[in-house]
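ingest -> validate -> predict -> emit
validate: passed (alphabet ok, no gaps, 498 aa)
predict: started
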Amino acid sequence: METLPGLPIMFEEWEKTPLMVKAVVIALWEENQTLKRQVTVLESQVKGLQAEVEKLKERVNKNSHNSSKPPSLDPPGIKTKPKREKGKRPRGGQDGHQGAGRKLKPVESVDRVVISKPVECERCGCLLLGEDAHPSRHQVTEVPKIKPYVTEYQQHTLTCMACGEENQADWPSEMPKGSFGERIQALIGYLGGRFGVSQRDTEEMLEDIYGVEIGLGSISAQEQRVSQAVEKAVEDVQEYVQQQPVANVDETSWHQINDLCWLWVCVTAQVTVFKIFSTRGADGVDGLLGKDYLGIVGSDRYSAYNHLDTEQRQACWSHLIRDFQAFVDHLGQPQIVGRLLLAQVKHMFSLWYHVRDGTLSRSAFQVAMQPIRHEVHCLLHIGSALKHLETRKTRSNILKIEPALWTFVDVEGVEPTNNAAERALRRGVIWRRRSFGTQSDSGSRFVERILTVVITLRQQKRNVLDYLTAACKAYTLGNPAPSLLPVTLNMVHLCQTN
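emit:
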């Protein structure tokens, strides 16, 4: 028996159905079809909204532990460090602990000695004479009130008694061109580049602490003089880093007036360079390291570094740990794989710390790393096949540069993280937050150069203020600034010059 199309009613029964009932059935059937179409549309919308909610949840749950967000952007309640278990010992120094008090200077090194001697005996009143061979000693260190040292230069003009010619003396070659000496110039650069003091605060500090009256415009002028003094030394440093076998690179946003730029940093073992470029792409990497750089680059997995060979890269494991933690924060399969990856990472770093402190040879380390590398490889391939889109995408991106994960195992001198570059770049981030960038091209050059000088000198454990003073003095005399290159290289350069 045949039925009506779309209705479970036989033709014979339909023929017997009254006309009014047929009309009602047809109306209900049309309404049912409309509702089905609406349900299909609503189901599609619900699926889309569910996917959007999942994306928003992932975005809200991102923090410094599972993404590249800085700790300062973590929401309330996120602990930056695991909570330490409460011990039984009380706070402070424990019984038997040897204190580390301030050591006394030799008597001949102090500026003033105040002697207190008893005059008469407390018991019988007799006059006391003699010396105590081992008196009790207490030293107090004080800072004297600073008074600026002002030098006046006078240029005389004398008339020749024989011919009447007026003769004017030359200014001394060591006289600074402006109104402030080399040490004040260096101090202004030091306060801004080393401690992040703003120009207005520098103006106040110079007046209140040093008694130097200086205008805000003069602060900027002295910064430019410092920038010019160290220009050649910084250029030599950039050439030097482009010849190093290992370099760690990172970048952060920077504003020059209204233009978005990028502050780049390159850290090597003894030298660090900062540069501001208008690009965050591969041109920034080439501008910093040179297009023909042959060394190994430690960095994050940002696409600007993708033009480098994977054998020439070391991907930062700090970033990888955050990605694996993001897997753990998901439910289901991503969480399981994430926990297994973090367990391998923990084992890897325990071995690496022994290599770094010299208790494990590199050959033994390479052997011990083989099963870890194999396990991580397998887990990443499992993750790339999971249903969760973000997890699958992240693991696929990691697998594209998989050889770059293990460069530090095979090549001595390579660190597994990019922490050195991130630490150096933090000074630039603080500068950007307090000043919102720079207002001119010359201001950007000052930022590059002073940060390069400060970080490089601190790497080499050299005095920053003394160097800047010497550089400004050399600039006054028309001489090059002292080199920023490592001491051994400086000696070679001096020998070649002589």
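The radius of gyration is 36 Å.
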